[in-house]
Amino acid sequence: MDKTDLETYQVQLSQVELALSSDPTNAELASLRSELKELIELTQVALSQAEAASSSKADANRKSATATPIQTWSAGDECLAKYSGDGGWYPARITSLGGSTDNRVYSIMFKGYNTTELVKAFEIKPLPANHSGAAPSSTNKRKLSKAEEEEREKKKKKNEKKVEAKAAKAKEQMHKQATWQKFAKKSEKKGVHIAGTSGTSIFKTPDNPLGKVGVTGSGKGMTEVASRGKHKFVPKDDDGA
Asked: Where is the composition biased (Basic and acidic residues) (predicted)?
């Protein structure tokens, strides 16, 4: 229905009323007049609703055109994120996205820290134009949460234990080395030569071309042993016989 239809119904109604003025008792004309009035009323209501809907749509389009565009974020984007510990805003990097399109959740990592935190869309915003991109200085660093403090203390103690273990192992090696050197010196004083203590290695190539590396005394002949003759039993005369 449009305004043209409304005008047509109104013209028809005026014609019916003119006819009724000449024949007021005509039931058919009276019924037609009632139908036309009802039709005109419905048409007016429909046109009013259509105009209201059109006006509302125009207002919505005008508002959307002037509204601030919605920021879209992706993994790897730099931003300012709200820290739940103190409510402050700090430079961060988005590591991943989750949730639905209407209720997006972002996993972010604050600069200078290895901890991640989940935030909603209203808890992140673009970096200011004059932002240098540097991590916050020590004077305005955010406070660590209790869990972060415990984790840092745990790592610190673990590193200290590693350093202590390495130092103890090095000390033990030095003690063994000193003990061995002391033993070697005592052996030399007693005339016992220990290979490797005086710059001589058991793996040194022997001077004898027939010698073998790693075999002490290699290339020398076998130790000669004096031959022993077979004992012969010689009976002795018994002087008392």
From this structure: 161-175
